[in-house]
Amino acid sequence: MKYLAGRINKLNGGESVCRIFDKLREKKWGDDIILVLLEQIGTGQAIFATALEIISSSEEAGILLLERCGEQPRFLSTYNVLRQSGCTPEQCIHFLLNYGDYSVGQTNISEMIHGQNRRREAVRLLVENALYFCCGEEAETMISLLDDVENGTKALRHYIAFATTEEPYKQLATLRYLKSCGTEALEMFVGNLRRHTDRWVGVLLRELDSQAMFSRIATDIEPEAVAEEHPLKKLASFDLMMRYGFATEVAELPAKIVEDLDAVLSALRGSRFEAVLLGQGHLRQQLVERLAHDASQVMDALNELSPDGNPYLCLRDVLSPLVAPAEPVAQTEVNSPLEFQRIVLISVGLNPEVVSFLSQEFGVPLHEIHVDARPAKFAAIRPGDIVVYDTTRTSHVAYYRAKHLAAKHGTMFRHATRTNQEALVEILRG
Questions:
Q1: What percent of the residues of the chain are helix, what percent strand, and what percent coil, each to the nearest 5?
Q2: pTM of the prediction?
Q3: pLDDT of res. 135
Q4: Which CATH class name applies to 338-428?
């Protein structure tokens, strides 16, 4: 006990350390594990007061963020900057778990927030609209606008307003104007944009250079039927393709891919994935590539998208770029050693026959963890495992807990967008 008390005293965290200890002990954490984590975080009452607020505000996600702070102590000071900017504890926790490790260009998001610590509106804007800042194709342009406190944040609010009303051509037109003209007369330009439909703005973007487009938006009266003769007009999802500036690309695709794409977009219409998928050019491109490779597989995966978690991350996992198939393994190499000694499957429960088959096929034990299991169950992940996470049945907290523990132990981590026998064998063979 003296040894334990001595280590606690060295933390110099006052009552906050004791309360953190109590909360983690309630979660069945061992004292040594708690001490290692707290020693990684740092020393001082201010640090542990912040840590206590984190795990008190949102227990499961807060504890997970606290674990991340052991690896990234800077997250604690980032959390304080976010709080000083008016963000709620829940907003801060969600942002750091989802986007704390993101980089835009060469700049880490967490470092960027420290650079904006005197610009509270800019920080809140970044946190509240992180998907556009971190995942958009024009992320670097958007981030650069944060440095102009007055005009830059106004410009970003116009961009985000068009994103919220699902007018992607007006988003692109706003960015093109900012790149060409900066924030001079931006309010007038945005006012002119609002007079037009997004579809007509898309036509001008495709047909004109920047200066001509700006002039037409300021002076034109929009014709009544912009897309009446469009070759894709009979498609059920034609309005979505036009709204998100996708129609021109689709018109150049083979008929079979267009048919499959129409089915996918119709299925995702109105869902939380619609704007994320169609508003991100690289995701659209990956979708087309995957449809060309195996349309039925893509449809199955999209139909099983999780209702929880970050929609961008869910889609990114499902539509990740195709990997060229490995060369066939020569017969003499079939019994070559595996890179793992145990399989850990995290899902909501697999068919026992599939579990039995995988264990026999690879000749190693297989350990299952339910996505809703208590944190102590995830502690079973250890070096030498391969962790396969079922992203169709995921929960935000469970996903990050598993991914964090796998990284901590140097354990291989794989996403499974399908959990049938053939798909899991393919994942495990890498």
A1: 65, 5, 30
A2: 0.50
A3: 58
A4: alpha beta
